[in-house]
Structure formats: C-alpha cells, structure tokens
Design goal:
By secondary structure, the chain is α+β, with helices and mostly antiparallel strands. The protein has a single domain, classed as PAS domain (Beta-Lactamase). Helices cover 35% and strands 24% of the residues. The chain has five helices and six strands; from the N terminus they run E-E-H-H-H-E-E-E-E-H-H. The chain has helices spanning 16-22, 26-29, 40-56, 132-150, 156-172; strands at 2-5, 11-14, 60-67, 73-85, 90-100, 112-115. Strands 2-1-5-4-3-6 form a six-stranded antiparallel β-sheet.
C-alpha cells in the first residue's frame, strides 16, 4: 500500500489497497485520519515516532498493528523516504509503503521504529499494488533499501529523484469515477 505525505506529515494520498485492507475510505485517511486504524496500544508510540522522523526529515521504518477490514489487527511495517525539492532542497514530505508482515515468532510483540533506515519487506501477495505507478513506487522503495545495503551510495541521488517524481505523480493523480477510492 503506497502513501504520500506533505511536509507536516499529513497523508495526501493513499492507494486503493488501503481501503481494501482497512475498510477506511481514502477521504477519512487523509491528514492524520489513518491513525483511527492503529491499535490503541501502538498509537502513542506511532505518533511520537512519526513526529520525530518528520522533525529530523529522516527515512524510517515503523512496526505496528493496523485494523483490518474484518476488525482484527495485524502487524505491518510502514516505511518511507523523504522527498526534497526546490527551492533550496526544501523538505516536501514522504513517499512510503505499508506492508503486512507474516507471522515470524521471533519479533517482539511491541510497536517500534527505526530512523535513518528503511528497507521494505517483500510485498505481501494479499495487498498487491493497484496501479503501474504504485508498483513502480514499490520497486523504487525496495531499490532504495538494496542500494544502501550494497553500499552503492553513488546511486542514491538518482534514486531519490525518481522517488520524488513518483510521489509527485501519485499526489497529482486526479480523482475520477474510476479512481474514486483515492484521495489527494
């Protein structure tokens, strides 16, 4: 599930998979409305962590529980990379993804986050991207994590520009009857 935020951290775009996964209409997820789907035990951790990530304008990974459309909760990882643009390399917000985690048995049963690093988990077949652009954004986020692991930092500026462009295109996507479950 792909999302875009503004510089204040408010959601400006969620992919249609968000509504399918949570049953929350996209219009209700904008700004901070998506927090309604966060498990109450993880809420304070998520708010504090995301505020800190935004203040530092840092990429991040955040593990927490989200309410599914059937009312049950499942563990997800939310990760994002910052976007910067003119003038003067201004912080514009984030392009990120939310992926359901499979049960591992070895993970702690608490919400937690990691700043300055986002390596997305493999896509979950239950929540495939809804459009080609969202699929491209998913792959760009994965590539970002792989480049950092491989220490090919020379590629990061080009990849970050591609991520910025994908985020802008997603945020500009105009709501139409065919895409009525998106919000911008």
């Amino acid at each position: 599930m792909i999302f875009v935020t503004n510089a204040e951290g408010g959601v400006t775009y969620v992919s249609p998979e968000w509504t399918a996964f949570t049953d929350q209409p996209a219009i209700e997820a904008v700004e901070l409305g998506w927090f309604a789907c966060v498990h109450s035990d993880d809420y304070e951790t998520a708010v504090a962590f995301l505020r800190n990530a935004r203040d530092q304008q840092s990429e991040y990974s955040l593990r927490l529980r989200l309410r599914r459309s059937d009312g049950s909760y499942t563990w997800v990882i939310i990760g994002a990379v910052p976007s910067f643009g003119p003038p003067g390399n201004t912080f514009l917000g984030y392009l990120g993804s939310t992926t359901e985690l499979g049960p591992s048995g070895s993970e702690p049963l608490t919400a937690y986050g990691t700043l300055a690093r986002f390596v997305p988990p493999p896509p979950n077949p239950a929540t495939p991207p809804g459009s080609t652009l969202e699929l491209v954004a998913d792959y760009l986020l994965v590539a970002h994590g792989l480049i950092e692991q491989d220490h090919a930092k020379e590629m990061l500026p080009v990849l970050r520009k591609a991520l910025l462009t994908a985020g802008i295109l997603l945020a500009r996507n105009i709501t139409s009857p065919e895409t009525g479950d998106r919000i911008h």
